[in-house]
Amino acid sequence: CRDKPKKFMKAIILAAGRGSRMMGLTKDCPKCLVKLRGKTLLEWQLEALRSAGINEIAIVTGYKSKMLSSYGLVEFHNPRWEKTNMVSSLECAQEWLQEDPCIVSYSDIFYEKKTIEQLAECPAALAVAYDPNWKKLWERRFEDPLIDAETFKLNSDGTLAEIGNQPGSIEEIEGQYMGLLKFTPASWIVAMELWSNLSEEQQNIMQMTSLLNGMINNKMVQISTVPNVGEWGEIDNQSDLNIYTS
């Protein structure tokens, strides 16, 4: 993604799930309202997105959705949030995805505006942000970094060759997907073509990385990659909070 034309961009934050691995931290609030360094994760995300010039922002809600109504965001609701996964939640926002390019952000991460800017400026129809220096962070989070890491392989031209599988070795990991990506209407059509051929059960359990990997394996679209710029993190549990505040 070397060319950087300015494009109108919206953003969608996926905040439907509870985040069961957060245990008591999400007993009374959605995961995105957990605080890190005095700000909620949602506030971190909104600050980065707006600083990058993205002001039309939607949120896909589910668990304790009423707690997110005061942020002035466009709301798409996933009424089946307890039984479905990430892609089902994103599909609830397809009204936007069909019309304009959209940054899509998981709600349990934080990042800086520079990565958003690079994603927005990338001319590719579909692009994902990743951390090429993932190992250092994963070694802080896990005794064995392979426990929670997934494969992330690049082609020689920097496009994505594989994502989301169980790695057998460190060599299969050239970075880690951040939970931050960009769809255009053209790439969303391709994603939904793959999605529509799945059974309801398969749709309910589909992870985002499985969708991306399916599009790669079926040669449906090339996926560009954007390396992270600046600090970022994923909050899965109290231990992660401790890491990012230490």
Describe the structure.
It is a single chain. The protein is α/β, with parallel strands linked by helices and 246 residues long. The chain has helices at residues 41-51, 86-91, 94-97, 113-121, 134-141, 185-196, 200-205, 208-217, 238-245, and strands at 10-15, 35-36, 39-40, 57-61, 74-77, 102-106, 109-110, 126-131, 152-154, 160-163, 176-183, 224-227, 233-234. The strands form 4 sheets. The protein has a 7-stranded mixed sheet with strand order 5-4-1-6-11-8-12. A two-stranded antiparallel sheet has the order 2-3. Strands 7-13 form a two-stranded antiparallel sheet. Strand 9 and strand 10 form a beta hairpin. Helix 6 (185-196) crosses helix 8. The longest helix is centred in the C-terminal third of the chain and has 12 residues, at 185-196. The protein is globular. The N and C termini lie far apart (34 Å).
